[in-house]
Design brief:
Layout lengths: L1 E7 L2 E7 L10 E3 L5 H8 L3 H15 L7 H10 L1 H8 L1 H8 L3 H7 L3 H20 L11 H21 L8 H4 L7 E3 L10 H10 L11 E3 L7 E8 L7 H19 L3 E7 L3 E5 L5 H9 L9 H9 L8 E8 L9 H14 L2 E8 L3 H14 L3 E4 L5 H13 L1
Parallel strand pairs: 6-7, 6-9, 9-10, 10-11
Antiparallel strand pairs: 1-2, 1-3, 4-5, 7-8
Helix pairs in contact: 2-5, 2-8, 3-4, 3-7, 8-11, 8-12, 11-12, 11-16, 13-14, 14-15
Length: 400
C-alpha cells in the first residue's frame, strides 16, 4: 500500500496510489498490512476510521500491552484516579465517548457502569474486526501501521500550520548554541577561534593563552550526514512527552531522508528497546516510532554507547540527538559512566546534542557537561509542543 506525499511550500498533499515497486522515501510511503479502504478513509478524514486509529495511538502512548474491556472497567470502578493515570484521559475519552469529569462523576452508578462496559466492549470488538487488535487485545502490525499513518499526517499538518525557521522564535527555541571547536594541531592559524581559545585558557586558570589552549572551529565537509535520534522511553515519558517525541522523530526523519541524509533511531530506558540502523527507510523508522511504549528506568550511558554503534565507522559527519527528561538511574556511578560514554563517542567523531524536558538543576548540569564533551547544543524546554521545531533546529545547526 503506497501513500504519495507532495510538499509544496509548507503544504503537504497526500494521495493513495496502487502498489508498485518504489524507492523508499522518494515522496512515497509503503505499508504492508494497511489496506486501501482504511487508508482512503483516513485521508478522506472519516471520523470513525480516525477514532480507531487514535485509539491505537493512545494505547501505545499509554504503554499498554493490550486493550481489554475487563481490565479497563476493573480499574475505572476500583480507583478512577489511578485508571486515569494508567490509561490517560485521551484514551478513556476515545473509548467511552465521555470526558474525564463526566466519567468520574458517574462511574459509581451501576447503570452507568453497565452502559460504559457495553460501549467500550463494542469499540474494542470493532478494532478486532478491523484487524487492528488480536483476540487477546494486543496491537497488530496493521494497528501499528495505522497509528504510524495518523502520526505522520498529524505532524505534516502541524508543521504546515507553523512555518519552520521563523527567526523571531530562535531565542525561545534554543537554550544555548555552541559552535563546534577542537584543540589546535596543525591547522591554519587563521582558523583559530579567539573566543573558544580564551574560554579554554580561563578554564585552566590562566591569564594568557598558551598553544595548549588554542581552539579551532571544526569545519564540516558537505556531503552525507548521519543522524541518530535517541529517545528516552522510560516510565516518566508516558503520555504527551512520548507522543511529541515520536512526532519530532517523524519530522526529523522525513526532512533528513528527503535531503539524502541517513537517519537512525535508538529507543532506550534501562536497556535498548529498539534500534534502527542509519540509512534505513523512512517507513521503517516511522513504524518504530509509532510502536514506542514508555516504561522502566533510564540508562543514558548505555544509550550513548548503543547509539554510537549505529553510526558507520568510516569518517563522516555524525550527530546524535539525545532526548531525555531525567537523570540516569542505572549503574554504580551513572553520571560518571554517562560522561565517559559521551567522551568516547566524541573521540569517534560523533557530536552530541541534548534536548532536556523539564530538567532538574542536577539534570541540567549533567546535560551541560554532555554537550560540552560532545560539542553539541543543549535545549532545556518545558513546552513539549515545540519538540519537532527544536529537533529540526538542531538538525539544521548540525549541517552548518
Amino acid at each position: 500500500m503506497n501513500l504519495k506525499v507532495v510538499m509544496k511550500g509548507n503544504i503537504a498533499r497526500t494521495s493513495v496510489e496502487k502498489s508498485e515497486p518504489i524507492e523508499e522515501l522518494s515522496g512515497k510511503l509503503s505499508f504492508q498490512a494497511l489496506d486501501d479502504k482504511l487508508m482512503h478513509l483516513i485521508l478522506e478524514n472519516d471520523k470513525e476510521a480516525i477514532e480507531k486509529g487514535k485509539t491505537i495511538q493512545e494505547a501505545l502512548d499509554a504503554s499498554l500491552g493490550s486493550l481489554t474491556v475487563d481490565l479497563l472497567m476493573e480499574n475505572l470502578v476500583n480507583n478512577y484516579s489511578w485508571a486515569q493515570k494508567l490509561f490517560g484521559e485521551r484514551l478513556l475519552r476515545v473509548l467511552s465517548g465521555y470526558d474525564s469529569a463526566y466519567l468520574e462523576s458517574n462511574i459509581r452508578i451501576p447503570e452507568f457502569q453497565r452502559e460504559l462496559k457495553s460501549t467500550i466492549g463494542k469499540r474494542i470488538e470493532a478494532l478486532k474486526k478491523e484487524g487492528l487488535l488480536e483476540k487477546d487485545g494486543s496491537i497488530t502490525e496493521k494497528g501499528i501501521e495505522l497509528s504510524s499513518l495518523l502520526l505522520f499526517i498529524e505532524e505534516l499538518n502541524h508543521l504546515s500550520a507553523r512555518t519552520y525557521g521563523d527567526r523571531h522564535d530562535e531565542k525561545a527555541l534554543r537554550e544555548e548554541k555552541q559552535p563546534y571547536a577542537k584543540p589546535y594541531k596543525k591547522e591554519r592559524y587563521r582558523d583559530v577561534s579567539i573566543q573558544k581559545t580564551v574560554r579554554a585558557a580561563i578554564k585552566r586558570g590562566r591569564q594568557k593563552a598558551t598553544r595548549e589552549d588554542l581552539r579551532v572551529l571544526e569545519t564540516r565537509k558537505k556531503g552525507e550526514m548521519y543522524i541518530v535520534y535517541a529517545i528516552d522511553a522510560s516510565g516518566s515519558m508516558k503520555g504527551d512527552k512520548i507522543r511529541n517525541a515520536k512526532k519530532a522523530g517523524i519530522a526529523l526523519s522525513y526532512k533528513a531522508i528527503n535531503e539524502k541524509n541517513k537517519v537512525g533511531l535508538l529507543v532506550f530506558s534501562k536497556r535498548t528497546k529498539q534500534e534502527v540502523q542509519c540509512g534505513s527507510s523512512f517507513v521503517t523508522i516511522l513504524k518504530a516510532l509509532a510502536s514506542i511504549k514508555a516504561k522502566e528506568e533510564t540508562d543514558i550511558a548505555h544509550a550513548i554507547s548503543s547509539a554510537s554503534r549505529l553510526f558507520p565507522s568510516a569518517p563522516a559527519a555524525k550527530h546524535l540527538i539525545l532526548l531525555t527528561d531525567s537523570l540516569p538511574t542505572i549503574g554504580e556511578k551513572p553520571v560518571e559512566e554517562t560522561l565517559q560514554e559521551a567522551s568516547i563517542a566524541r573521540s569517534k567523531g560523533i557530536t552530541i546534542s541534548v534536548i532536556g524536558l523539564n530538567l532538574t538543576e542536577e539534570g541540567r548540569k549533567l546535560s551541560e557537561r554532555i554537550v560540552e564533551l560532545g560539542q553539541g547544543r543543549l535545549y532545556a524546554i518545558k513546552d513539549y509542543n515545540m519538540l519537532d521545531t527544536i529537533v529540526l533546529e538542531d538538525y539544521e545547526q548540525s549541517l552548518s
